[in-house]
Amino acid sequence: MTVSPARSLLLACSALTLFSACASYNERTEGAFRAFEGGRFEEAMLAYAEDPEGADFLSAAEAGTAALTAGLWSPALEYFTAAAKAVREVEDEALISVENTGELLLSWTLNESFREYYGEGYERAMMHACLGLAYLAHGNVEDVLVETRLVNQLLENEQDLFDVDYRAGGFGHLLSAVAYELIGKPDEAYIDYKRMQEKGVGGDLTGRALVRLSGALGREDERSTWEAEYGPALELPGDLATIVVIAGVGIGPFKQEQRLDIPTHDGFLSWSVPTFLTRPQPVRHLVLETQAARVRTEVVEDVSRVAQKNLDDRIGWLAGKNTVRTFLKRELRKQLAQDHGIAGALVGDLFTLLTERADLRAWRTLPDTWQAARLFVEPGAQELTLTASGGARVYLGNFTLEQGETMFVLARTLDRQVYAHVIGGNPVAAESAPID
Question: Where are the domains of the chain?
Answer without folding.
Answer: 5-119+236-429
